[in-house]
Amino acid sequence: MSDDVLNKEMLDYQLMKAEEYENTLDILHPEDVIKQEKAFLFRSSKLALVVGHSARSPGAKGCPPISRHEYHWNQFLAKIIKDIATAKGINCEIFYRDGIGILGAYQEVNDWKADACVELHFNAYNGQVVGSEVLYGSSNIFSKKLAEDFQEMLVRVYSREGVANRGIKHCKAGVDRGGENVNQLVNIPSCLIEPYFGDAQSDAKKAKKYINVLADSIIAVYLNFIKKA
Ligand SMILES: [Zn+2]
Predict the structure, then answer these.
(1) Predicted-complex ipTM score
(2) 105 and 151 share a domain?
(3) Coiled coil: which residue ranges (predicted)?
(4) 88 CA distance to ligand 1 middle (Å)
(5) Which listed residue, 28, 49, 76, 182, has the most CB atoms within 10 A of its CB?
């Protein structure tokens, strides 16, 4: 091995070690990030709702009594949530992916400087599987906690037991379903909820029966979350 090659390898090794060291320092000292996030979270109270899918591509179709695609059902749900939030003095806005896509919608959420963001969906599989789950990413360190809080609420609202409590799922952008959605916001905690399987009759019935409970509970989780954050 020539001296030049050896020197380059040593330099690369040192740089890698330096980066590892810096990364370790970051991990060991998260207090700066937390302070920044805390200040941001307390500045105002704004809840952003992203309606999953679009009118052009409305997502999964729910069976009766949902009888609608995700996009239309969750547009309806989002309006209920917004009405409740407004009555409680919480700033709540609905964001759509229509015409601007996932990145465009999240850019708007970012520009609006929301305190937390939740994207609304429902699952569909084979008409038999039921359950609740929440997807989250790594772009904001509080997103996991937000996802946990939402999942805990969904388990309670829909009385999930065993495998029907599908838990929270960490998603990577470009790898996992929903990964693109839940990794867009750096300064804003966000997650994506799948409260039920809209194509399963028992879950569709629960979706309709508890729609106001879900809307109320989303607000309650949000308020509790920003209080603690
Ligand atoms: Zn969906």
Answers:
(1) 0.99
(2) yes
(3) none
(4) 28
(5) 182
